[in-house]
Amino acid sequence: MISVIIPTFNRREMLKRAVDSVLEQTFEDWELIVVDDGSTDGSGEMLGQLPDGRIRCVRQPHQGVSAARNHGIRLARHPWICFLDSDDYWLPSKLQRQMETLGEHPSYRAVFTDEIWIRRGRRVNPRKTHRKYGGWIYRHCLPRCIISPSSILIHRDLIDREAPFDEAFPACEDYDLWLRLTARHPVFFLEEQLIVKTGGHSDQLSRSVWGLDRYRLRALQSIHGSGRLTPQQWSWTTREIVHKAAILAAGYGNRGKREEAEKYRHVLEEFMSSPDYS
């Protein structure tokens, strides 16, 4: 029923924990595809010692998390797709509860769960701005990414229809995909904490890439010009573009980077003059 895809790069110890959390699932009708994105820390050797026949390990030259996830999607044999980042892990009932939810709500083709946050080894509470929503949630996805890749179970028809992860994004590739998905489809939110997201480590992608709003703005401009949005969605998107462009223009200006600041001021002025912005 389910293909689970774990992309990994030089996270041998964390990876073992993630894989174990899949092996411990109460729902057992799955295959696991681990895509080693060019690791040099012995991850491949460790994976080769795993005895479970449902686990496939593939290796590719280092190309980034989006290319690794997309490779896994191409190899997936089953109709439902799950992603699990190698620094996260699942509670044992995660897949079981998602499949039960889809049985109770068959009109949905994607369901994601709530999460537990661990930062530098300590449990923390997410801010109110990280609140999650279900249903037609496009508007709520505009400020930031509220769907963790490790939490979603999605039918591959939706991925095929909306295109996979954009490999041109060094970060916020999930934000970009969820905008495309939620603009056209409702997503069920299962209000149960069934995954553990760890953070604060030095190789965490959101920590290693500065200025994430640059990539969110790129995603917003892309979907704004795609012709995929309703008039209301287009208006919401315009406002978010203005908001993020203003933040970036001010941030670059404060750092004395005039050329970059001017670039985002042009974006700000362009979209503020749009007829759907008032």
What does this structure look like?
By secondary structure, the protein is α/β, with parallel strands linked by helices. The protein has 2 domains: 2-208, Spore Coat Polysaccharide Biosynthesis Protein SpsA, Chain A; 213-272, no CATH class. Helix content is 42%, strand content 19%. It has helices spanning 12-23, 43-48, 65-75, 94-104, 138-141, 156-162, 173-182, 205-208, 213-224, 231-254, 258-272, and strands at residues 2-8, 30-36, 55-59, 80-83, 89-90, 110-119, 122-124, 153-155, 188-199. Strands 1, 2, 3, 4, 5, 6, 7, 8 and 9 form a 9-stranded mixed beta sheet that branches. Strand 6 and strand 7 form a beta hairpin. The longest helix has 24 residues, at 231-254. It starts with a strand and ends in a 6-residue tail after the last helix. The model has no long low-confidence stretch (mean pLDDT 92).
